[in-house]
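input
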Amino acid sequence: MPWDCIKDDTIKALISFHHMGQIYKYKSRQRRINESFDVNSVSLIYHQAKLNSIKYFMLQLARMSNAVVVLLLVLISLWNQPVLSQNQDQDQDQHEHVSITNRLGNGKNLSLHCQSKDNDLGQHNLADGTEFAWDFSVNAWGTTLFYCDLEWEGVQQYHFDAYAFDRDYVRCQTQCLWLISTEGIYGLNGQTGFWEYIYHWTN
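output
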């Protein structure tokens, strides 16, 4: 209806008030939409930042975990490896001493090669009456093992354990002493003080 056709001022006032109310409702609704949009935007940005922080934290944690694992492996490896000092006096860190003496007699030489999983002591030729010795500390797991291969004119490539933790930790009493004779191999029992006939030649 054209505005000029309305003569009653009261009716005009009511219509104007009605239009103002509609405009106010529209603006209020639009403001709520905008506010809702702003809240959603802020929430999205917050969650994205939180997610990025979590990813960064997990990445740093993974890097730290890898470094810790590597460090632990290195420490375990060092702890597990016997400390050697060939033909030297024992110090505070050394707990065992192994000595192998050639008692074949008649000027017979002995060829000897001793080693462990981590240490190769090399090939040695012992003249009659001489010895080869080394010192070491046992590992934390109680699995230290040194073995030797020997030969002389009557025996070819005989293998024996010069130090086995399970057998020798108590028996040797910090010193494992061996005598290589024509009958076989004798070992000193540190508890009794007697030589024991432990290995005999197989050929």
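quick obs: The first helix runs from residue 9 to 80.
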